[in-house]
Amino acid sequence: MKKTAFSLVLLLGMAAFSCSDNSGNGKSSESKSPASSTSTNSDESTPTSLNIRYIDMDSVAAKYNFALDLQEMTIRAYSKLQNAGQGREAEINKLGQQIEEKMRNNGYLSQESYDADVAKLNKMQQDAQTYLGNLQRQSEQEIAAQQQQLADSIESFIKDYNKTRGYDAILYKAAGAYFNPALDITEEVIEGLNARYNKVEKK
Predict the structure, then answer these.
(1) What stretch of H or E contains 170?
(2) CA separation for the pair 85, 68 (Å, rounded)
(3) Using the 8-state DSSP alphabet, how is residue 28 labeled?
(4) Whole-number Å distance between alpha carbons of 28 and 26
(5) Percent of the chain whose pLDDT exceeds 90
(6) Is the whole model's pTM more than 0.85, yes or no?
(7) With contact defined as beta carbons under 8 Å apart, do 64 and 197 qualify?
(8) Are 179 and 35 spatial neighbours (Cβ–Cβ below 8 Å)?
(9) CB 154 within 8 A of CB 19
(10) In degrees to the nearest 10, what's the CA dihedral of 83, 85, 89, 91?
């Protein structure tokens, strides 16, 4: 189920996530943040360099406890759906075999009796399809809600994190072809995410 972690990354969006500098008024081209390395042209309107960092979302999905819990939840939901399907299939096959055996042994004394058993089998199949369909939709909705919470928790943390850093942008690694490894803040972000998530869990 390692692919599950990667599917979570897709839901977080691979586009760049820009973080605003909270130390200025948002209109000045001269950043006041000590962490910023932005310089400007003579017209003071266009920055010639940006103070950027990046995050490897594959690592976040593999190490963030919320993401790991969501992976376990997804596995449990899949197992529950699979077990339910196998159980209903076994019941249907059992009834079908009983009907066939009764036919071979001339156990049906009338067409009505045979038709009643066939109708019961058909209803059992229809009920199984309805039940499994509802169970699958319920599981998908629960997982989707948790995935949205996961995405929101990461976005919220990054915004709070950048308030004390003042980076011009924090990107996801997948958004670019190459980043200098010195710009990687993944481990620091994962540590902060887990610290905040664990604190919430203890409440």
Answers:
(1) strand 169-172
(2) 26
(3) -
(4) 6
(5) 68
(6) no
(7) yes
(8) no
(9) no
(10) 60
Tokens encoding 126:
């229809």
| CA distances to 53, 80, 118, 128, 141 from 89, in Å | 53, 14, 16, 8, 24
**Alpha-carbon span 168 to 174, nearest angstrom:** 18
Structural contact between residues 143 and 73, judged by C-beta atoms closer than 8 angstroms: yes
For residue 130, is pLDDT > 80?
yes
Which residue do the tokens 């190490």 mark?
Answer: 63
Compute the average pLDDT of residues 182-198. 95
Q: Give the rounded percent of residues in the chain with a pLDDT score beyond 70.
A: 74
pLDDT in tens, 3-51: 444 344 433 433 334 443 443 444 333 333 334 444 444 455 555 688 9
Handedness of CA 196, 179, 21, 151 (dihedral sign): negative
Residue type, 127: D
